Amino acid sequence: MKRILIVLLALATLSACRRAPVIGISSGRSESGAATLSANYTDAVVRAGGVPVIFPTVADSALASTLIRMVDGVIFSGGPDLDPSYYGETVWNETVEVDTLRDVSDLLLMRAALASGKPVMGICRGEQLLNVVLGGTLVQDIPTQVDTMVRHNGGVRHRIGVEKGSVLYALFGQDSLTVNSSHHQAVKAPAPGVRVTARADDGIIEAYEYGNQVIAFQFHPESMVRENDAWLAPFRYFIQKIRGK
Ligand code: MN
User: Is 0.85 topped by the overall pTM?
Assistant: First the structure.
């Protein structure tokens, strides 16, 4: 009996000491050298019970691996377009804006994060790049490459259809959601193993999962949180998943 009590006490102490999950978030760098990341990402992680840490841009794989070792999960944030050479294409038109430094950094961090087995969330550019790292391709410019009546750029809102059985469906219990949209690129060919979980009415991919490790959104839940607390759900899910590990 005494031994059982001691074990129970030890377990209680252990769980009480367990710190809140630390979430690394990728950032960019402006031309003047400032690190760039919307505080909406860090705010959403804090409100969901996590501890956000902003990753700098990195240029070598050892540093990327060290940063990934320091955190419990990683969010890859939005930003400019990926250089299409990473998926075997040349630049389609003048709307494609690449940032070589950020491409190198994000891809190093993504490879390290995926290899670590730690939970990963991709948002907008993060969603697109993860698909490329996993072996997929992108639409370079929706308005000129896709025959669509849906507007995706310019901070509009549109409907998405959500697959039953997906994380997104479990979080909201709805097969139709309205999301924000400020992107001109999107996932074209999903990588092997990527499960598409939401599409806009024109078929553009708006969310996917990759095994149990990656959830990815083309839209910006961290911005919608400002108007509607319900959009904390993906971040709460992400933090809870790490806690449960
Ligand atoms: Mn969209």
Answer: yes
